[in-house]
């Protein structure tokens, strides 16, 4: 990572000397993986921190999504958003499930509940919403629709670590919620992920599926996969938990600095936090509207020219990639809000150790105080 560039995110890491005792324990025990002691401790610690009953750790969030769908035996069609990272839809294809894309709410950028019912067919078995940028979906309305039609709900909660809604952790909603602990996330284990589930029976099935389908040394009951998190990743997770509250607090300060500086700029819209939630400040997306003196791509290039490596999350839409664009639900006319947002959004750098002067520099660039 070059010194004169500011990236949209950087991994939050503890001091190396604090990690060494964990590595020494792993070397001493000679247990490197297969649900060892750190793996078990980390699962318990996450349950306590996140306020959930059961959690199963994974090697990454994509494998966790694939396994979540297998756990609930989802088939046929699944309603989801085109405005997400491509792993959301890829997990469906890996399970031979047809994605059905539904438009997003133009304010929250999450799956629009008003459009879900019209997309339900006799082949629909589930809804897979995404808590985009860590902003909670309208979980109550989505659950009501699912209950009315007998559908499962699997949340792609890759961005939603620690997010709270009015009734507690947003991860408790739906049948399953899937987290990512990738290095770019608010909370990371280098690579990693997890499935949050409501009961011990479901966790047992998940644990079997992530270990090739084994139930004992000689019996395999399902075509599972190797999705287990290693002891090194779990140990890092335990250490990271100690500093996560301070890290989120620092992100919140940066978020507010951006909002204070950017809100007055004509043509720039800061995506609002969801009402009645406690967020994690996972990303800082702005929309560049027609009132701004240059296009989104023009501003994107200007930022890059000054060493600000912002990202156009999420452009293009998932529905525009070759393996999806032939689907009827991928038509741009079906996705007007998502198509517009994908042309307008830039995610600005936000991470705990981003210096205030760099935040102010970015704001000045966008305000055209620096050419």
From TrEMBL:
Keyword annotations from UniProtKB, A to Z: Aminotransferase, Pyridoxal phosphate, Transferase
Residues the record marks as active site: 185
BP GO annotations: polysaccharide biosynthetic process
Molecular function in Gene Ontology: pyridoxal phosphate binding; transaminase activity
List of residues that carry N6-(pyridoxal phosphate)lysine: 185
Annotated InterPro entries: DegT/StrS_aminotransferase, PyrdxlP-dep_Trfase, PyrdxlP-dep_Trfase_major
A Pfam family reported for this protein in Swiss-Prot or TrEMBL: DegT_DnrJ_EryC1
Gene3D superfamilies tied to this protein: Type I PLP-dependent aspartate aminotransferase-like (Major domain)
Similarity remark: Belongs to the DegT/DnrJ/EryC1 family.
UniProt cross-references to PANTHER family, sorted A to Z: PROTEIN RV3402C, TRANSAMINASE
Protein name: DegT/DnrJ/EryC1/StrS family aminotransferase
Native species: Rhodoferax aquaticus
